[in-house]
Amino acid sequence: MQIKNKQIINNYAFIDSQNLNLAIRDQGWVLDFKRFRRYLQDKYCASKAFIFIGYLPTNESLYTSLQEYGYILIFKPTLHLPDGKVKGNIDAELVLHAMIEYANYDKAIIVTGDGDFYCLIDHLEKQNKLEKLIIPNRYKFSSLLRGFTSDMVFMNDLKDKLEYK
């Protein structure tokens, strides 16, 4: 919780890690997750930041670092596809946790460019519970999300502030 304009604000961030990571890397830079957590807290009063991520035993050091930066990790078991790729679809978990935590936060910050979250974002907006929709790449995101332009911010504009150096 943070105090802003003499008001206590308690917002939560819900982060689609795969969409975030791939979209940022596609732009040719790497996100500094520590700085991103601080940004979410300072800019949007995110007292909690849930990051939804596929679990791989080889990524333990990453998970430890994310927890040290203040993220709450929600793991999804992964599948190894025949083409060698690893898939961990977190969509249902993110929506479920946003609703489980619904009474505990003032507003939600959703970090994704994936249109599968349209129904959640639409519901949050209609209930005046959407603080911000943070889209990792302004040039590659679902057209379903275009109806939320007044609630959007694009991470392309945040490279100088959030790039890992």
Q: Quickly give the structural class.
A: alpha/beta
How far apart are the termini?
29 Å
- Strand ordering within the main sheet: 5-4-3-8-9-10
| Element string (H = helix, E = strand) | EEEHHEHEEEHEHEEH
Can you give the mean pLDDT?
94
Strand content: 25-35%
How many helical elements?
A: 6
How many β strands by DSSP? Answer: 10
Largest β-sheet summary: 6 strands, parallel
General shape: globular
Percent helix range? 25-40%
In words, what does this structure look like?
Helix content is 33%, strand content 28%. It starts with a strand and ends with a helix. It is α/β, with parallel strands linked by helices and 165 residues long. A six-stranded parallel beta sheet has the order 5-4-3-8-9-10, sandwiched between helices. It has a two-stranded antiparallel ribbon with strand order 1-2. A two-stranded antiparallel ribbon has the order 6-7.
Q: Which terms would index this structure?
A:
two-stranded antiparallel ribbon, globular, 33% helix, 6 helices, 165 residues, six-stranded parallel beta sheet, alpha/beta
Secondary-structure blueprint of this entry?
Layout: E1 2-4, E2 7-9, E3 11-16, H1 17-26, H2 33-44, E4 46-55, H3 60-68, E5 71-77, E6 79-80, E7 86-87, H4 91-100, E8 108-111, H5 118-126, E9 130-135, E10 152-154, H6 159-162
Parallel strand pairs: 3-4, 3-8, 4-5, 8-9, 9-10
Antiparallel strand pairs: 1-2, 6-7
